[in-house]
Design a protein that fits this description.
Layout (H helix, E strand, L loop, with lengths): L1 H14 L9 H31 L18 H24 L6 H26 L4
Keywords: Coiled coil
């Protein structure tokens, strides 16, 4: 399965991190970026697998923004993440309470988009928090 291969690749990359000196940030950064990319790809595959298990068909291709609009700082990114978490919670609650509603598929698609935005924001926050310039 594709997800297993991605998980294994990320784990193998993660296992190589101990080979770097603690102060070798420049050497570790490309490996960490590869690990994060593998994890993001794994998350996308797992979302598709979950969608197929729930609905029995592949999800419709959706246009997910490649990134969240740039913010001025870490605080704004965290605020946006909190807002998205609230929207995810509300959407999940709607889906749980009304699974047979005529807009349930639309809500599920919105939930997938919000989850992707959340993952993107988390990646940006990590990059800003641990950026070495």
């Amino acid at each position: 399965m594709q997800a297993d291969g991605l998980h294994r690749a990320a784990a193998l990359l993660s296992n190589t991190l101990h080979e770097y000196r603690p102060d070798d940030v420049a050497g570790v950064k490309p490996v960490i970026e590869q690990i994060l990319a593998k994890r993001e790809e794994w998350k996308r595959v797992m979302l598709q697998v979950e969608h197929v298990k729930k609905t029995g068909k592949l999800p419709d291709p959706v246009q997910v923004p490649s990134s969240v609009p740039p913010a001025n700082g870490l605080a704004e990114l965290k605020l946006e993440l909190a807002r998205i978490n609230v929207n995810i919670s509300k959407t999940k609650k709607k889906l749980e309470q009304n699974p047979e509603h005529k807009k349930a598929q639309h809500w599920a698609a919105d939930l997938d988009k919000l989850e992707a935005l959340k993952d993107d924001l988390k990646t940006q926050i990590v990059a800003l928090t641990y950026a070495t310039t």
